[in-house]
Specification:
81 residues, mainly alpha, 2 helices, 48% helix, 0% strand
């Protein structure tokens, strides 16, 4: 009996590792009363620190526009006009 031709082996596909997206670190809320108060104060003052930093950068650069007032204040001014 005559044998058939040899079968060509299929090319192996490139192996890629399936790496899942890393989870964000968990934020653990403070439990002690003093730590809770400290966390609240830090949150309040970080907003003021950010605003002061933005003003400083804008004054040094010179051409950045600063938003005057909070969003609520700006909306009230628009309603009055």
């Amino acid at each position: 009996m005559v044998q058939g031709g040899l079968k060509k082996a299929s090319k192996t596909s490139k192996v890629t590792k399936n790496v899942p997206k890393r989870m964000a670190p968990k934020k653990i809320a403070p439990k002690k009363a003093t730590a809770v108060r400290q966390a609240v104060m830090t949150k309040k003052h970080s907003k003021a620190l950010t605003a002061a930093t933005e003003k400083l950068i804008a004054s040094r650069v010179g051409h950045l526009e600063l938003v005057k007032g909070t969003r609520k204040e700006l909306e009230k001014k628009k309603e009055k006009k």
